[in-house]
Specification:
heterodimer, A: alpha/beta, Amidase signature (AS) enzymes, three-stranded mixed β-sheet, 37% helix, globular, B: Arc Repressor Mutant, subunit A, 3 domains, nine-stranded mixed β-sheet, three-stranded antiparallel β-sheet, 40% helix, 19% strand, elongated
């Protein structure tokens, strides 16, 4: 029998249900893998004692004949952007030094309620701002995939620790958050499934805010089915979040019928970028063929405002961030660097507490909201955002889902693009438009680059149609028969 | 009663607009469930949201929305079914979020009107520009320690209404009348207790002056954070004179924010640093726009109490009161209710007289509010009834009233205890009159000879014999009958 950690989440759930092993055994296997994988730097905080206690509770429940569903007793990791009761929560930032919340985010609470076992808090770009996990105060995360040249690769970001830990089979699933691609791009880089639900599907309560109108939690797993099961345990309306949408929660796994016959899939022509690597183009064409072979119709569609998505995103997200991060002032929690006046204390604290990328975005955001620039930047960006959303609405009058690459490249080497923010921002070119429109999307690993690194394809559907996202995603997964086992591992 | 300031080359008029911050009466804060009671120990009414802990989100308190709509309806204002909460960004130690959630471009209430009751009985309308909802900040305590400041977040997140008038006010007196009237309306509605000492109502004033006849507005100055009606009036007076002098001297009046020095009664400019903010307003992405349906507004409207203007009109119409008396009686809802209880089934004018002249006089002297009056409306009503029945004379009634104020007792009990009952028994008085006539033939002769004044001597004798309790009308009538025989 293979190692317990090689199981998918669904297989682990089935094994627990069948009594093949206990949650404690499963959890110990994960904790051992976490220890063995420390070189990845995927975790900021490990919570082995808490994990064993929750695993024991799960086993006890199961012993009494009670179970809370497929996640009960399954080890998962939580991105360190989710506040967790009694467990250090850092957002990857120095400024939250020593911050231990007295409360649990709604999403992580939902997972707890479903019986999931948290093994630790995963590393991330500082305040989820980044596409490489290199901006974390706690150091970069390493992608467990090895390229031919032997150089360490980034896991993508901002949910890099979650992606890396799932790919390295440390846990069966991890939570991520996606503001402009922070679940899907690391999913693509690490050869796992990353799913961003519709904005409003998961509560934002208790998640350290980056850009409130964009942030959305989602699952990161090794299979599409696992993502469906995990989202089931995360999502749901929450009256504590005014932007959480009061809609019913469908049975996501039930949507995995494998049948996409007659479905119309759109290929947005504006996503064909100049200078895009041929291997990305080739994978995309391959994706079209797979879906057609499964009985779907494909056609080209137009999303004419796509080229404005990145600049729009880099106005709106920093604007919101500049305001959301104002609360980190050294007065009530986290880091405080004293000064001779209140203003000096602010300057010292925020200067020492925020890294370069966060400072850059706070400055951009402050600038675009300031008197005299607000209309030209923020207001205009909001208008373009509406146009981008309308592009999708129109496309979805013709087609049921869209197929695109997830990212314009495979994982790059650690240290690359760090001094070129624009090149770094381009990583999100395929994920940002659907974020701006609030639409659900999934990245499914679909092939390898010439260097032997994973590449993902993305499926986007209309709002609150996660079922179709999963259904088409699973068809891609089946067709590609991508092997999530790390090469050489 | 135009308020004009004499300048070197002619008269100037004052143009005033007010911004009033009123704390909404609500058990919980605007976006969190924390309590709002005044006077709690520091930092005991602070939720995770108020303290701006990471990941916390605001959720609108529907009761506060209702209160704002109710106030808007009381100001006869347009209710905006669509309004937006925005973030006003600035750093301060008592502002945990680093921004205040407020309404900016789309307030919940638009234009309305407040009617002032002028002392001469006329009325004057002051336009309301808008009303919006916002969060209060916390309190910084700088006087507890020589080096450190302390922060109390109890107020943080409490719902305020900011009410902005049009520049329609023309004198310190009108400003005072406006504030009292606004407070009266909000107290009637139960939306703001208007207690300026506790800070539940604060006022900023915008003042400019212009030569009589000018139609354009000149540059204004703003004076912030005035916490009494008297200070508002003083600040306007000072500021208007200062500006007239500046204009006369050919100096520029700059648009600036000033602070009021209540000890000196003067204003001084704030340091530039104290107000040079770029607030970077933008719609709060944590909150959806506030959308009300008309039925919600209609439901609140249907349940509104009778407001001072309507009540005043009714008192004049139904009770025949003078506009002045009616105005005095409706200024407070509790006074109006007290008066109506006294007037119920009695002569309204007599009731009004007793309430305004005797009761108010006594309460003012004791520094009591109507709700603390030792004399209940029912007791005052009984006292008036005792006069009507002839049990008490007007003079005796005042004595009983004084006793009621002291003891809080019922008038009937006091009358019985002190044996104060007026003698209206004609038989008893007749006996005394007959005796006097028999014993004093000289005086009887004088009267019969045409000296009418001597009747006063007889009245005095009877009052002396009855310790003043004889019914004076009856005494007079009987004397004239008997002496005329």
């Amino acid at each position: 029998m293979a190692a317990l950690t090689d199981l998918t989440l669904a297989e682990a759930a089935a094994g627990l249900a069948a009594g093949d092993f206990t949650s404690i055994e499963l959890t110990d296997a994960s904790l051992a893998a976490m220890e063995a994988g420390r070189a990845l730097n995927a975790f900021i905080t490990e919570t082995p004692e808490l994990a064993r206690a929750r695993a024991a509770e799960s086993d006890a429940r199961r012993g009494r004949g009670e179970t809370r569903g497929p996640l009960d007793g399954v080890p998962v990791a939580i991105k360190d952007l989710f506040c967790t009761e009694g467990v250090l929560t850092t957002a990857g930032s120095h400024i939250l030094d020593g911050f231990t919340p007295t409360y649990e985010s709604t999403v992580s609470q939902n997972l707890r309620n479903a019986g999931a076992v948290m093994i630790g808090k995963t590393n991330l770009d500082e305040f989820a701002m980044g596409s490489s996990n290199a901006t974390s105060y706690y150091g970069p995360v390493i992608n467990p995939w090895r390229a031919d040249d032997g150089k360490d690769r980034v896991p993508g970001g901002s949910s890099g620790g979650s992606a890396s830990s799932v790919a390295a089979r440390i846990c069966f699933g991890a939570t991520g958050t996606d503001t402009g691609g922070s679940i899907r791009q690391p999913g693509s880089f690490c050869g796992i499934v990353g799913m961003k639900p519709t904005y409003g599907r998961c509560s934002r309560w208790g998640i350290v805010a980056f850009a409130s109108s964009l942030d959305q939690a989602g699952p990161m797993t090794r299979t599409v089915r696992d993502a469906a099961l995990m989202l089931q345990g995360m999502a749901g309306h929450d009256p504590k979040d005014s932007t959480s949408t009061p809609v019913d929660l469908p049975d996501f796994a039930a949507a995995l019928t494998g049948d996409i016959r007659g479905m119309k899939i759109g290929i947005p022509k504006e996503y064909r970028l100049d200078g895009m690597p041929e291997e990305i183009e080739a994978l995309w064409r391959q994706g079209v063929e797979w879906l057609e072979a499964a009985g779907a119709e494909t056609r080209e569609v137009s999303l004419p405002h796509t080229k404005y998505a990145l600049p729009t995103y880099y106005i709106i997200a920093p604007a919101e961030a500049s305001s959301n991060l104002a609360r980190y002032d050294g007065v009530r929690y986290g880091l405080r660097v004293p000064g001779d006046s209140l203003d000096e204390m602010y300057e010292n604290t925020r200067g020492a507490g925020f890294g370069a990328e966060v400072r850059r975005r706070v400055l951009i955001g402050t600038y675009v909201l300031s008197a005299g620039y607000y209309d030209a930047y923020y207001i205009k960006a909001q208008r373009v955002r509406s146009l981008i959303a309308r592009d999708f609405d129109r496309a979805f009058e013709e087609v049921d889902a869209l197929l695109t690459p997830t990212a314009p490249s495979a994982a790059f080497a650690l240290g690359e693009k760090m001094d070129d923010p624009i090149a770094m921002y381009l990583n999100d070119v395929f994920t940002v438009p659907s974020s701006l429109a609030g639409l659900p999307a999934i990245s499914v690993p679909a092939g390898l680059s010439r260097e032997g690194l994973p590449l993902g394809l993305q499926i986007i559907t209309p709002a609150f149609d996660e079922e179709r996202v999963f259904r088409v995603g699973e068809v891609l997964e089946t067709a590609s028969s991508f092997d999530t086992r790390l090469r050489g591992a | 009663m135009t308020y004009l300031i004499q300048g070197d080359r002619g008269d100037w008029e004052v143009v005033i607009g007010l911004e009033i911050h009123g704390q909404v009466v609500s058990k919980a804060k605007l976006f969190s469930g924390a309590a709002t009671a005044f006077g709690a120990d520091p930092n005991c009414q602070v939720s995770l949201v108020d303290a701006a802990m990471p990941g916390m989100l605001p959720v609108i308190n529907e009761h506060c929305v209702e209160q704002a709509v109710r106030t808007g309806l009381g100001l006869k204002a347009e209710i905006n079914l669509f309004s937006v909460f925005e973030r006003k960004n600035y750093f301060y130690a008592d502002l945990p979020q680093g921004y205040q959630i407020s309404q900016y471009q789309h307030p919940i209430v638009g234009e309305g009107t407040v009617v002032l009751d002028m002392p001469d009985g006329s009325t004057r309308e002051i336009g309301i520009e808008r009303l919006h909802m916002e969060q209060d900040a916390g309190k910084s305590l700088h006087d507890q320690d020589p080096r450190r400041s302390f922060i109390d977040l109890n107020r943080t997140g409490v719902c305020l209404m900011e009410i902005v008038t049009k520049p329609d006010i023309r004198s310190p007196e009108e400003a005072g009348l406006f504030l009292r009237k606004l407070r009266s309306i909000m107290r009637y509605l139960g939306t703001c207790d208007g207690n300026m000492e506790e800070g539940s109502m604060r006022c900023d004033i915008n003042v400019s002056v212009r030569s009589v006849g000018e139609t354009e507005l000149r540059t204004r100055a703003e004076v912030k954070n005035l916490n009494s009606v008297r200070f508002v009036m003083q600040a306007i007076e000072y500021e208007a004179s200062r500006q007239v002098e500046a204009h006369d001297a050919g100096e520029e009046v700059v648009q600036e924010t000033r602070l009021f020095d209540s000890a000196r009664g003067t204003t001084r400019p704030m340091r530039a640093k104290e107000f040079a903010h770029d607030y970077r307003y933008f719609p709060d992405p944590d909150l959806l726009p506030l959308q009300l349906d008309q039925a919600f507004v209609d439901r609140i409207k249907a349940a509104l109490p009778e407001l001072p203007d309507d009540k005043k009109a009714r008192f004049i119409r139904e009770f025949g009161l003078s506009p002045y008396d009616a105005g005095v009686l409706v200024a407070s809802r509790r006074v109006a209710e007290y008066f109506e209880a006294v007037a119920e089934g009695r002569d309204p004018k007599t009731a009004a007289n007793w309430v305004i002249t005797n009761l108010f006089g006594a309460l003012n002297a004791k520094g009591l509010d109507i709700s603390e009056s030792p004399v209940s409306a029912a007791a005052l009503g009984k006292l008036i009834d005792l006069i009507g029945k002839g049990t008490l004379s007007g003079r005796m009634a005042k004595e009983v009233f004084d006793a009621m104020l002291e003891s809080g007792q019922d008038p009937e009990a006091i009358v019985a205890e002190r044996g104060l009952e007026q003698i209206s028994d004609s038989g008893a008085i007749e006996g005394i009159v007959d005796g006097l006539i028999a014993d004093n033939p000289t005086q009887v002769e004088q009267y019969r000879a045409g000296n009418q004044k001597v009747i006063g001597w007889f009245v005095g004798q009877i009052m002396k014999a009855t310790q003043g309790k004889a019914n004076p009308q009856m005494v007079n009538k009987l004397l004239r009958e008997k002496l005329g025989e």
